[in-house]
What we know:
Largest sheet: 7 strands, antiparallel
Oligomer: single chain
Shape: globular
Strand content: 25-35%
Amino acid sequence: MLKEEKSRKAGENKNYNATIVVSQTAGEAFKSINNVTKWWTENLEGSSHKLNDVFTLLWGGKSFVTIKIVEFVSDQKVVWQVTDSYLEWLTDKMEWQNTKMSFEISTRDNKTEIYFTHIGLVPKVECYNDCVKGWDQYVKGSLVKLITEGKGQPQLKK
């Protein structure tokens, strides 16, 4: 296999990730991440604040994503697992099923770094390009605003 082909194939399996750096504490960042209605969407049923919590995001029409918090280490890490989903605009309506979203928090040089990965959101899946735009908007935009300014830009209630 050619070096170029190997590189392309390796990229096909690369999960979406984003790193953000803020001046606020790890505790403030952790609290903001778990306050999903303040940065991602106000259309949430359930709770997103502790281990084993389950919450459902409602995106209009029949579309929804149900998530369970499967890892929760205060001020350090939270991992969400999609347990059920229906994304009506995709051919594979359950494309997010069993994917995970991981937020890892660390402190370096008096700054807080948040490393976000959507495990399973790779370039070969249908929603990759649109989902990257969405995650960029919500993680790099709205979540950062919530942590740094106290007010995010979530999708509003429908």
